[in-house]
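One record is given unchanged without comment:
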Amino acid sequence: MTTIYDELAYVFEHLNSNHDDTVVFIARHLADEPAAAMVDARLQSASPDGITIACRRQDGSEYELEHRFGSPPESLDEVRGQLFGLLGAARNAADESVRLTSLEREIAGTDDLSTFITSVVAVRDLTPNLRQITFGGGLDDFVSIGGDQFLYVLLPPAGRSDLTVDADFTWAANEETPEPERPQGAYYTVRRWRPDVGEIDMWFVLHGDAGPASAWAARAVAGAPAGLWGPRSTFAPPPGTDRYLLVVDDTGLGAAAAVLDQLCATSPAVDVIAETIDADHVVDLPEWDGVDIEWCFRGTQAPGEAGLLIEAVRRRALDVPALYALGAAESREITAVRKHLRNDVGMAPDQVAMTGYWRR
């Protein structure tokens, strides 16, 4: 039987991969360490007694922190509440000059997100496992924020064809919605926004019925209803960036293509490392003289297990000072890339944005 601690392993993995700066921020508060002293922290484990955080100082020394629960939590939401309580306490104790963490920015940003009720207008297969779905109608008020902007695609509940949400959708209300009425869905990157016709293209990786969004995409036809909640973006290169590293698997190809579209106006140097099955699954990506694309073919190896992305990154001699790295791939694979760039290469937190798009 799955316990809340089994489920927490995935929550911890997500936070460690996508909000590592937030984990460090909380750990520094718990340890009462100066910012310069602690360089890394990871949520390691949870038990009925509390949460353990593994920490590493600037001098390389490692140690563990423990946050004790007042009483054993009875639900995943209770543990989440403990984590958000720790984040709030760390923020209250921090100097006003300390910038918001990625998780705090994400939470603040959801309050103003819009919901667009739209439908499928076109479906086109780009490769044997990558399908482009175009949404149109109801998007007159959509405002693009560029980069790797993503939206939560709201789909009909399981076993239904009708959409049960409208433009007043909020995530808070969704959490309280009874299961039979709750929309299915997942986050997807906007590959292309065409304001002249009011249409959005998204790339969906097809992998059978392994997930509700993939199953829906495999059967999607023109006229199928959907909601789009967002947009948000993780692409935030610091001032002075003049070189980019994009690291993606099949699920991140749309993000890489969208970012390349945006960067082509200034034509900086961009290294792209992309993993897919074989040459039949390669897609055309925007290119110019400064773009170098390395395709890594995993062949018959299972997605998310080949280790090709981290191997390719390790082979690179990276020019760190003006480099920005964006990654989108399987959670454990992209976590390995993030750790290498941060710990071995020495890139600063604001130079690295690695997002686990899925988990094997």
